[in-house]
Design a protein that fits this description.
Elements: E1 39-51, E2 60-69, E3 72-78, E4 82-83, H1 95-110, E5 114-115, E6 127-132, E7 140-146, H2 153-166, E8 171-177, H3 183-187, E9 195-200, E10 203-209, H4 217-227
Length: about 230
């Protein structure tokens, strides 16, 4: 079986295309083309260098969870920065590195991710999977499009980081780095970064381009959308 979107061959029993993220219809439903209520997403924890080093330092890095699911490719979570060793690689014995890795694993588990068979959350080479059981009701998804060099993206990311605590169990935030997956720009018709797309019951209901001009503006948008029918 091949993906109707990009033409790549699908894995057995796949619920989405691992190449482009397009949903695979459930042939047992008459409305199969829109069936996205029970789907799986996968992610793996990787690291990337965020700052150059010197003679005695390998620079800075951070962990992030590279994911793909029905919305395409996205960043499921990211950690605080930590330092690499003098050779520019991860020092698994460094307490700050272990703490950074533990923090991203905790974020994933809190958001419903579980280690896939054959891996554990303890190791530095771990993969996760989760099933989206339902996207109905008072739950909102936020697709956050950013890159690491555009002005305002870092501040926008900091605002998003505080939102789940304000709306416990009501938000799912997906981070799309446009430098990692340029195809997301075309797929979601992105006009710039940072850009926020709000979805309810799997359908886009609002967009917000740029850094919010005043404090609390994103919270106001979320409350209004959650309270709407």
């Amino acid at each position: 079986m091949f993906c109707a979107g990009c033409g790549k061959q699908l894995e057995k029993n796949a619920s989405f295309c691992a190449n482009c993220g397009r949903a695979v219809p459930n042939p047992q439903r008459s409305d199969a083309s829109s069936d996205q209520t029970s789907m799986s997403e996968i992610c793996e924890v990787v690291w990337e260098q965020t700052g150059s080093g010197g003679i005695f330092s390998g620079g800075k890095a951070r962990f992030y969870a590279r994911a793909i699911g029905y919305g395409g490719k996205f960043v499921a979570a990211e950690s605080e920065e930590f330092r690499l060793n003098g050779d520019g690689v991860i020092d698994q014995n460094d307490p700050k590195t272990s703490a950074a890795h533990g923090s991203i694993v905790n974020k994933l588990i809190q958001d419903g991710w579980r280690p896939v068979d054959g891996t554990t959350a303890i190791g530095f080479d771990c993969k996760f999977k989760r099933t989206i059981l339902s996207r109905e009701g008072t739950h909102l998804e936020i697709y956050f499009f950013f890159n690491n060099w555009a002005q305002g993206c870092e501040s926008a990311a900091a605002i998003l980081h505080s939102l789940p605590a304000l709306f416990p169990g009501q938000l799912t935030i997906r981070r799309f780095d446009t430098d990692i997956d340029a195809g997301a720009i075309k797929q979601f018709k992105i006009r710039g970064v940072p850009e926020f797309i709000f979805l309810k019951s799997g359908k886009e209901c609002e967009r917000f381009l740029g850094l919010p001009p005043r404090p609390g503006q994103l919270e106001e948008v979320i409350r209004r959308l959650l309270q709407s029918g």
